[in-house]
Design a protein that fits this description.
Rossmann fold, seven-stranded mixed beta sheet, 37% helix, globular
């Protein structure tokens, strides 16, 4: 059964739905959404087990695509453009392949329809190891997480999932479900391997990222025959954080044509 996703809506006009990545939330895309909201109605959902959305035991891409399809139907969105980054990009691809009639166009940011090595279970384990209920400050938890993960880990990004209730901290993200479903999240559904989405599709990747290697391009083109591939210089996996202006220009130019 789909879960009813929490979301924020900005602007008015043709609908654009932006799906965030693992450990993120819709609010991570607020800056870009505010810029697009001058011409579009931009929907920023929180994925299941993230942000303000309900928790669930499972997190398969068909299920998360179903959550987004239910949101599109509930809000009466007509042929929205669905944009997704990382985990959100896989969710967007799953939706396009399973229910192509539900969307008008697809934009995928720095991810491909393939399986990846698990780089994130160590993050989940470190977050679960913290006694957040006993912590007295966010700084204390920041230092503890940095000690566990090392200096190159995205500690501040992970700690965006921390919230405070009165005198106590807890997590917005469902770490147990994320841990149990990590293998599924790192993969991509085999059942979608024979599907095709024939609508407009944009695949953007960071030039400094290794998430969309040349070997992934034939599969992208097989599943999404109208795919346009675009590289953003001086950007890694978090393209929207590394080069927000360049990504915004790319999306604005493409959205004008897609609509």
């Amino acid at each position: 059964m789909p879960v009813e996703l929490a979301f924020e809506s900005l602007g008015a006009g043709p609908p654009v739905v932006i799906l965030h990545g693992l450990f993120g939330a819709g609010r991570n895309w607020t800056q870009l959404a505010q810029a697009l909201a001058a011409h579009y109605r931009v929907i920023l959902p929180d994925a299941r087990n993230h942000g303000a959305s309900p928790w669930a035991e499972s997190m398969s891409y068909p299920e998360m695509a179903g959550d987004v399809a239910a949101l599109i139907e509930r809000e009466g969105l007509q042929q929205p453009v669905v944009v997704g980054h990382s985990m959100g990009g896989k969710t967007a691809m799953a939706l396009a392949l399973a229910q192509p009639q539900a969307i008008g166009a697809l934009a995928v940011i720095d991810i491909a329809p393939q399986a990846y090595a698990d780089q994130f279970s160590s993050y989940v384990a470190a977050m679960r190891s913290l006694d957040v209920a006993a912590a007295t400050s966010r700084r204390e938890l920041q230092q503890a997480l940095a000690t566990r993960l090392g200096p190159n880990a995205p500690v501040d990004f992970l700690l965006q999932n921390l919230r405070r209730h009165g005198e106590r901290f807890d997590w917005r993200i469902n770490l147990m479900a994320t841990s149990m479903c990590m293998g599924t999240l790192c993969g991509f559904p085999d059942a979608l391997a024979t599907r095709r989405y024939d609508g407009p599709a944009l695949f953007v990747h960071g030039a400094d990222s290794d998430y969309v290697p040349p070997a992934a391009v034939p599969r992208i083109r097989a599943l999404f025959p109208r795919a346009r591939l675009l590289s953003i210089p001086d950007a890694g996996h978090w393209v929207h954080a590394d080069q927000p202006a360049a990504l915004l220009r790319a999306l604005q130019d493409w959205l004008a044509g897609a609509h």
